[in-house]
Design goal:
Elements (H helix, E strand, L loop, with lengths): L19 H6 L1 H4 L26 E7 L5 H4 L8 H4 L4 E3 L6 E3 L3 H4 L5 E7 L9 H5 L15 H9 L9 E3 L41 H21 L4 H16 L3 H5 L7 H7 L18 H11 L4 E6 L18 H25 L6 E6 L3 E2 L11 E2 L3 E7 L6 E3 L1 E2 L6 E3 L4 H12 L7 E3 L5 E3 L13
Parallel strand pairs: 1-6, 1-7, 4-11, 5-6
Antiparallel strand pairs: 2-3, 4-10, 7-10, 8-9, 12-13, 14-15
C-alpha cells in the first residue's frame, strides 16, 4: 500500500495525516507508471462506496484455452463412450434444461441462465482476439486492428462515474501471448483498460519518500514532459494524458480502491466464491484459477465500472500419460478438479448479482475461443474444434432459463439456430444502450467502422 511521510494538518486529513491537497500533489508522478495497475493506498479508504444504483454493465469471463462444450453444457449421454465420456447430465430447475452433474449449484439457478450450444464461426487456434472483440482473426481488419469490447464502450460511452474508469481488466498476463487481451486497436492507448492485476501493480509503493521530495520530482517531470511533447509525433502523449486522468480518479476517491480491496468484503461472501492462488499458473502458460476474480468483478461493477474482463484457469485439455502409461493428465481428471470450483464461483456471482439487485443492470458472458473435438483422443483428451462452441449468459434483464441452438448427436456441428460472435456482441451492446445499427467508430484512416461483424443483430431469444 502507498504510505507517504507527510506533515500534520489541522483539517481535511486522512488517517495517515495527509490532506487531500497533498494527495493531488502526487497524481502526476503516480501516473508515470505504465498502462495499468497500482497498489491501493490506505489513504483512499476515507470514503465509502456509494449505495447508488450501478450503470448498465458487462462482466466477460474468458475460459482460457477452449472449454469442452460436450462435457459441460451439451452432454450426449446416448453417444458412444469414446464420444460421451464419463459425465452424465442432471436436471436443472428448468424443465428440459440439462447440464453436467459437476455443476449442481448452477443447476439450481438455470432459470437465471442461458446456454448457447451452437456458437459458430470460431477460430481454430489459441487466440483471445475473437473472445474480446468478436472478430475472426483471419478476416480483414483495419489499420491498427479492431478494438476490443471494453475499449469501444470506453470510447462511445466514457466513464459512468468520474472516479471509476469505464473499462477494467482483471486478466492475468499469460506467458502464451495469444491468450492475452488483444488491446485497444485503432482507438489507441487512451481507451486501454485499467489493469489492477498487471505486472506494475507495485509501482506506487514509495517507501520513505516525503511530500516535499515528491513535489521536487513532480517539477522535474513537468520539465521533461514539455520536451517529450515537443518531440512526440504520435498519439502516445494523448494516451498518457488519459492514464493520468484515470490515476487521479483513483487517488482522489476510495470507490475503486475499496472495490479492489477484498478485506472490505463480508468474509462469508468471500468464502461463498472461494479463493485461489494468483501466483500459480495452470499448465504454466494459462491463467491462474482465481475464483475471487469474479467477486472483484462484482465489486467493480458496484463502483461504477461499465465493463470488466477476466480470465480464469486453463481449459486446453489435450490429455497425456506419464512414463508408466497411466492417464494422469486426462481431460476427465482435470475436469473433476476444475468443474466444482467453477460451479461454486460462477453460481456465487449469479446469486450475488440477483441478491444485490444488480442482475438487471449487469450482463455476464462466459466463453472460450472454440469447442473441443467430439471424439476422445488416445491421450484421453479433446483437441481443438472450431466447428461449434458454447457460451453461457446471465443477467442483463434478458429472457433467461433457456437453451439456444442445438448440435448433432456427437456435439460436432450446429444443427439448429447457429449463433455468431457478432450476435452475442450486438446483444451485449444493446444491453448497454448502444445501437450497433447506427453507432460507428472512426479508424486510423478516417473511415467509420460498425461495431460488430456483418449485419449481426441482437439475439431475439434474449431481448
Amino acid at each position: 500500500m502507498l504510505t507517504i511521510a507527510g506533515r500534520a494538518h489541522s483539517t481535511g486529513e486522512f488517517c495517515d495525516g495527509v490532506s487531500r491537497r497533498d494527495v493531488l500533489r502526487i497524481g502526476s508522478l503516480a501516473a508515470m507508471g505504465t498502462a495499468g495497475a497500482w497498489s491501493l493506498p490506505d489513504l483512499l479508504r476515507a470514503e465509502s462506496l456509494s449505495g447508488s444504483k450501478s450503470p448498465k454493465s458487462v462482466i466477460m469471463i474468458y475460459l482460457v484455452g477452449g472449454p469442452p462444450h460436450q462435457d459441460m453444457f451439451d452432454l450426449k449421454p446416448e453417444a458412444p463412450k469414446e464420444i460421451a465420456g464419463p459425465w452424465r447430465p442432471i436436471a436443472t430447475n428448468v424443465p428440459g434444461f440439462e447440464i453436467c452433474e459437476a455443476f449442481p449449484r448452477l443447476a439450481t439457478m438455470a432459470d437465471k441462465l442461458t446456454v448457447i450450444r451452437s456458437l459458430v464461426g470460431n477460430q481454430a487456434g489459441h487466440d483471445a482476439i475473437q473472445v474480446f472483440n468478436g472478430h475472426h482473426p483471419k478476416n480483414q481488419k483495419p489499420s491498427g486492428g479492431w478494438p476490443q469490447f471494453g475499449t469501444i464502450v470506453s470510447k462511445v460511452q466514457g466513464p459512468a462515474r468520474p472516479e471509476s474508469p469505464p473499462f477494467v481488466s482483471l486478466c492475468y498476463t499469460c506467458t502464451h501471448g495469444p491468450y492475452n487481451e488483444p488491446g485497444p486497436g485503432f482507438l489507441g492507448a487512451a481507451h486501454s483498460p485499467f489493469r489492477p492485476m498487471g505486472e506494475t501493480r507495485h509501482d506506487m509503493v514509495l517507501n520513505g519518500v516525503t511530500l516535499d521530495r515528491l513535489a521536487d520530482r513532480k517539477s522535474l517531470l513537468k520539465g521533461l514532459d514539455v520536451i517529450r511533447r515537443e518531440i512526440d509525433q504520435t498519439s502516445t502523449m494523448e494516451g498518457l494524458d488519459a492514464f493520468t486522468e484515470q490515476a487521479m480518479g483513483l487517488l482522489t476517491s476510495s470507490k475503486l480502491a475499496e472495490a479492489l480491496d477484498l478485506s472490505q468484503e463480508d468474509p462469508r461472501t468471500v468464502e461463498r466464491y472461494g479463493t485461489g492462488d494468483p501466483t500459480i499458473m495452470i499448465d504454466s502458460n494459462g491463467a491462474p484459477r482465481v475464483p475471487q476474480s469474479l467477486l472483484l468483478a462484482r465489486r467493480l461493477i458496484e463502483a461504477g465500472v461499465r465493463v470488466v474482463t477476466l480470465n480464469y484457469s486453463k481449459w486446453d485439455w489435450h490429455g497425456g500419460r506419464n512414463t508408466e502409461g497411466r492417464a494422469d493428465n486426462s481431460i476427465f481428471l482435470r475436469e473433476a478438479e476444475d468443474f466444482p470450483i467453477f460451479d461454486q464461483c460462477l453460481s456465487a456471482l449469479v446469486e450475488d448479482l440477483n441478491q444485490r439487485g444488480l442482475a438487471e443492470d449487469c450482463a455476464v458472458v462466459v466463453w472460450g475461443e472454440f469447442g473441443r473435438t467430439p471424439r476422445i483422443s488416445a491421450r484421453v483428451g479433446r483437441d481443438h474444434w472450431p466447428k461449434v462452441n458454447c457460451a453461457l449468459m446471465a443477467g442483463g434483464a434478458m429472457q433467461h432459463g433457456q437453451v439456444i441452438g442445438a448440435t448433432d448427436r456427437i456435439a460436432g456441428e450446429a444443427v439448429a439456430r447457429p449463433v455468431t460472435f457478432g450476435e452475442v456482441y450486438a446483444t451485449l451492446f444493446r444491453h448497454l444502450g448502444i445501437d450497433t445499427g447506427q453507432t460507428t467508430i472512426t479508424d486510423l484512416n478516417g473511415r467509420p467502422q460498425y461495431l460488430v461483424e456483418g449485419e449481426a443483430q441482437p439475439m431475439p431469444e434474449l431481448v
